[in-house]
Design the sequence.
């Protein structure tokens, strides 16, 4: 348990190149700690250091270790639901992270199911135009695009974009990410003119780069 706490305490929630390199260097230790710690002690560690446990899950996911990330998130979720409730923001964040892993694994229907759960909770707790809620909307649009449902993807990207422009402003990086994602849907549909014109409009209006 002490090893878990030490590992969790030295990991950063940032995503800089230096952090990524450090994570790669300590990954064997992270794997060893999470693999060999008895389940009852892991549950206790998650209870005592929920933020640290979530960071470990995030790191597994960031480095493409989806199986390890999912196993850890599942245990985190059980503890959060019991201690915090189904509608707590930390619980919903874990639900959202699990949906992202399902999407990365190509389990699109399951990803949508879990994103829908996160979205319902986010709308109730934060409101429909909160940036976190809109991030879920954006991610669901990405799943639809991955399924080839381009029209539906555009519909959801438009919904995310309208909310982000209102909540964050037209030049915010989060807004521009949705502009960029929407443009790629146009590209997937073969509408290259719309792809470039959509991004160009944001550039000409002084909204900054679209990537």
Sequence:
């Amino acid at each position: 348990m002490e090893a878990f706490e030490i590992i969790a305490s030295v990991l950063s929630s940032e995503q800089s190149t230096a952090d990524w390199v450090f994570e790669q260097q300590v990954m064997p230790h992270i794997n060893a700690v999470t693999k060999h710690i008895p389940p009852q002690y892991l549950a206790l560690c998650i209870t005592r250091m929920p933020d640290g446990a979530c960071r470990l899950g995030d790191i597994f996911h960031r480095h493409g270790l989806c199986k390890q990330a999912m196993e850890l998130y599942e245990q985190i979720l059980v503890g959060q639901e019991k201690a915090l409730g189904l509608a707590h923001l930390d619980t919903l964040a874990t639900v959202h992270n699990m949906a992202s892993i399902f999407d990365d694994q190509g389990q699109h229907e399951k990803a949508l199911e879990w994103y829908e759960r996160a979205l319902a909770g986010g709308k109730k707790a934060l409101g429909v135009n909160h940036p976190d809620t809109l991030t879920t909307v954006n991610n669901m649009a990405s799943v639809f695009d991955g399924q080839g449902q381009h029209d539906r993807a555009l519909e959801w990207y438009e919904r995310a974009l309208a909310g982000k422009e209102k909540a964050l402003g037209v030049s915010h990086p989060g807004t521009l990410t949705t502009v960029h994602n929407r443009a790629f849907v146009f590209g997937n549909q073969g509408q290259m003119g719309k792809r470039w014109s959509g991004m160009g409009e944001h550039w000409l209006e002084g909204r900054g780069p679209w990537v």
Residues 17-36 form the longest helix (20 residues).
